[in-house]
């Protein structure tokens, strides 16, 4: 789960991290009051969306102005005006794709005098199964670009969970970033605060880009992006309350309410599968046959008729879907339950695109019989390869 920058800074502030004072604006008429509550002489006005590259982004609407999603203002009035220009408009960045995201929140914060921009992140390293620090002197840039062009400027190391964070970890980062004097001590303290927040709050990623050195020589968190483990939200109720559902794909949000593992993709063939591994294999074989999957959807091993029905409805709600492949290998999951769910869903929402069904495993004969006797226009498949070839042929044909 992702949260907005202003929420991330509020959370990090509670752990003692140095962040600028700021105000969130939800309505245009609140902008001037929010800006007026901050000391000048410089204000920073930031669009709040769940995507990076805001400063380099652009708005679809001409009346939003030609500047990106991060703007500087030299007066309260100018800050309020910039906020009004961005609210309700669609911001397009390299991470949002061409559709962009609507800006429903603005964050106005005090400006900072920047001496140096640095990069810092904590993330879960799936190779070592540990938390890793990543830092670079190339702050303000996309870390992927730095990794591709100047990888020697990136330091990455993991922390042994048996010892946890130690002062020498912070000193290692400080020296790699070229910090000196009192800045080293600040870095050691800040890294400890961030590591504690990362562990206690079940984060998957904590990115600060940039981490700055001010003109007074102090470290400050200028931007922050936090991502949390969705499977741990049951023990992070205050974090769960920060969820902004307007930033999420409606289909993915609906799927989560039925405990379905669904991720929207850009292809044209909808997939309904049981088991994450089989779902990945199904998407792969669709691509191998010259088409693209429209989604990842794992209904799980214990899906009910109702869950299957909802899964089918979610797939058909995607306007990009030109065909559907149902691929079920019944172990714990029974094929007749899948068949009942598909039949119920088709009767409820209709079937406007080709549907190929491949069933194998527990109660497979009952499942096939239900499908065959339903009167639905369903194409049967003998195996996974046959199913993929048939649905691709239907879509391409």
Automatic annotation (TrEMBL):
Keyword terms: ATP-binding, Ligase, Magnesium, Metal-binding, Nucleotide-binding, Tricarboxylic acid cycle
SUPFAM superfamilies cross-referenced by the UniProt entry: Glutathione synthetase ATP-binding domain-like (SSF56059), Succinyl-CoA synthetase domains (SSF52210)
Subunit composition and interactions: Heterotetramer of two alpha and two beta subunits.
GO BP of this protein: succinyl-CoA metabolic process; tricarboxylic acid cycle
Binding site for Mg(2+): 209, 223
Catalytic reaction equation(s): (S)-malate + ATP + CoA = (S)-malyl-CoA + ADP + phosphate; succinate + ATP + CoA = succinyl-CoA + ADP + phosphate; GTP + succinate + CoA = succinyl-CoA + GDP + phosphate
Taxonomic source organism: Roseivivax halodurans JCM 10272
GO molecular function: ATP binding; magnesium ion binding; malate-CoA ligase activity; succinate-CoA ligase (ADP-forming) activity; succinate-CoA ligase (GDP-forming) activity
Family in the record: Belongs to the succinate/malate CoA ligase beta subunit family.
Residues involved in substrate binding: 274, 331-333
Name of protein: Succinate--CoA ligase [ADP-forming] subunit beta
Gene Ontology cellular-component terms listed: cytosol; succinate-CoA ligase complex
Chain ranges of the ATP-citrate synthase/succinyl-CoA ligase C-terminal domain: 272-391
Ligase listed as a keyword: yes
Binding locations of ATP: 46, 53-55, 109, 112, 117
Pathway(s) of this molecule: One-carbon metabolism; formaldehyde assimilation via serine pathway; Carbohydrate metabolism; tricarboxylic acid cycle; succinate from succinyl-CoA (ligase route): step 1/1
The EC number(s) this enzyme carries: 6.2.1.5
Domain ATP-grasp fold succinyl-CoA synthetase-type intervals: 2-212
Database matches in NCBIfam families: PRK00696.1, sucCoAbeta
Cofactor binding summary note: Binds 1 Mg(2+) ion per subunit.
Known cofactor(s): Mg(2+)
A Pfam family annotated for this UniProt entry: Ligase_CoA
Protein task: Succinyl-CoA synthetase functions in the citric acid cycle (TCA), coupling the hydrolysis of succinyl-CoA to the synthesis of either ATP or GTP and thus represents the only step of substrate-level phosphorylation in the TCA. The beta subunit provides nucleotide specificity of the enzyme and binds the substrate succinate, while the binding sites for coenzyme A and phosphate are found in the alpha subunit.
